[in-house]
Task: inverse folding
C-alpha cells in the first residue's frame, strides 16, 4: 500500500474527478472552512477547472453552506447533506461549545438565547444576507449591548440549531442567512442512515484512514464512529501498514499517481486536518511549520504528497520557504494556477 498516493487520489488532489464545487463538497462530506478566503481554493483545487466564480455561484445559490458544525468549528457542507448533518453532529458540537463558554466564564440563560436568536433571525430575514455588524446594529436598536465574544457564541448557537447559515459570499466578511430560506428542507433520514452516510463519505474521500482519524475529524463519540464503520459492512476492509490498521473502500482509487507534482495547499485543508495522526505526509520534526498546538494551520507546499514547505497566498513577491529536501522548482505553474483562480 502507498498511503500517500492513495490519499492524493481519493482526496481529489491528483486527477480530480469533479468539474464543479458542489460535487466536491458533497463528495467530501464536510470541509474545514476556517479561512473565509482560502476555503474557496481548498474546494476549487479539487475540481478539474478551478473557478472562483463557480464557487461563488454555488455558495450564493445555497448549494454549498458554511456553518459551525463538527468540533464546533467552521465547515462547508452541501445543501443535500445540511439537515442530516445538523441532526447528527449538532448535539455534540453544542455540548463542546457550551464547554468552551464555561471555560471562558460565559453563561447564556435560555431566556437570553431565545430573545437574541429571534432578533438575529429577523435581521437575517430582512436583509437576506446579514453581516455581524448588521446584527450589532439590530441589537442596539432594541436597546441591547453585548460584547463581540458573547455575540459570536449566540451566532454559533443559532447556526448549530439550524436557525442561521451562510448568506451570500463576500470578499472578506462572512454573512448570514435564515437557513429555512437558504436551504431547501429534505426528507429527514434516521440517525443510523446518517451515520452510515457520514462514515462512507469520510473513508471514501480520506482513505486510508484509521478509526482514530475518523473520531478526531467527525467530533463524534468513539461508539458512534465504530457503529458507522460497522454499518458499512463489506464496503470497508482493513489493511495494516507499519503497525496501524487503516480502512479502505471497495471502490478506492489507486491508479493515476505520477511523481513530480507540487501542490499549494491552503491552511486548514483536509489533506492534514482530516487525520489525527499526520506523520504519513508530515514529518513530526516539522509539524510546527504546518500547525501549532492551538490548532492554527499554515499554508503548506506538498511535493509528491509530502509536506515540504510554506507559501504565502496573497503576496506577490514572497518566495516559498522549503524546510524539507532539495527543491529546484519555482512553483510557477502552481502559483499561476492559484492566481488565475483568485482573479477569475
Result:
Amino acid at each position: 500500500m502507498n498511503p500517500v498516493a492513495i490519499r492524493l487520489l481519493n482526496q481529489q488532489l491528483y486527477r480530480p474527478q469533479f468539474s464543479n464545487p458542489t460535487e466536491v463538497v458533497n463528495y467530501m462530506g464536510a470541509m474545514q472552512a476556517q479561512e473565509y478566503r482560502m476555503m474557496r481554493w481548498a474546494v476549487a483545487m479539487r475540481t478539474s477547472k478551478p473557478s472562483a466564480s463557480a464557487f461563488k455561484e454555488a455558495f450564493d445559490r445555497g448549494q454549498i453552506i458554511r456553518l459551525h458544525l463538527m468540533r464546533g468549528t467552521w465547515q462547508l457542507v452541501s445543501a443535500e447533506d445540511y439537515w442530516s448533518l445538523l441532526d447528527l453532529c449538532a448535539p455534540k458540537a453544542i455540548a463542546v461549545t457550551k464547554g468552551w463558554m464555561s471555560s471562558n466564564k460565559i453563561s447564556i440563560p435560555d431566556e437570553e438565547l431565545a430573545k437574541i436568536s429571534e432578533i438575529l433571525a429577523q435581521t437575517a430575514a430582512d436583509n437576506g444576507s446579514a453581516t455581524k455588524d448588521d446584527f450589532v446594529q439590530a441589537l442596539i436598536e432594541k436597546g441591547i449591548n453585548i460584547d463581540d465574544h458573547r455575540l459570536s457564541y449566540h451566532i454559533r448557537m443559532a447556526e448549530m440549531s439550524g436557525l442561521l447559515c451562510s448568506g451570500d459570499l463576500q470578499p472578506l466578511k462572512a454573512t448570514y442567512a435564515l437557513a429555512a430560506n437558504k436551504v431547501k428542507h429534505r426528507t429527514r433520514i434516521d440517525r443510523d442512515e446518517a451515520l452510515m452516510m457520514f462514515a462512507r463519505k469520510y473513508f471514501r474521500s480520506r482513505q486510508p484512514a484509521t478509526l482514530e482519524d475518523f473520531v478526531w475529524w467527525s467530533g463524534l463519540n468513539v461508539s458512534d464512529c465504530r457503529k458507522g464503520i460497522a454499518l458499512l459492512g463489506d464496503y470497508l476492509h482493513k489493511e495494516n501498514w507499519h503497525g496501524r490498521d487503516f480502512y479502505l473502500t471497495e471502490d478506492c482509487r489507486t491508479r493515476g499517481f505520477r511523481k513530480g507534482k507540487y501542490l499549494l495547499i491552503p491552511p486548514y485543508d483536509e489533506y492534514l486536518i482530516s487525520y489525527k495522526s499526520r506523520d504519513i505526509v508530515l514529518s513530526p520534526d516539522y509539524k510546527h511549520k504546518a500547525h501549532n498546538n492551538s490548532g492554527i494551520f499554515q499554508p503548506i507546499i506538498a511535493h509528491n504528497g509530502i509536506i515540504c514547505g510554506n507559501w504565502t497566498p496573497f503576496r506577490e513577491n514572497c518566495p516559498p520557504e522549503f524546510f524539507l529536501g532539495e527543491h529546484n522548482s519555482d512553483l510557477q505553474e502552481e502559483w499561476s494556477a492559484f492566481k488565475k483562480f483568485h482573479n477569475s
In short: The radius of gyration is 20 Å. The chain has a mean pLDDT of 94. The CA atoms of residues 164 and 178 lie 5 Å apart.
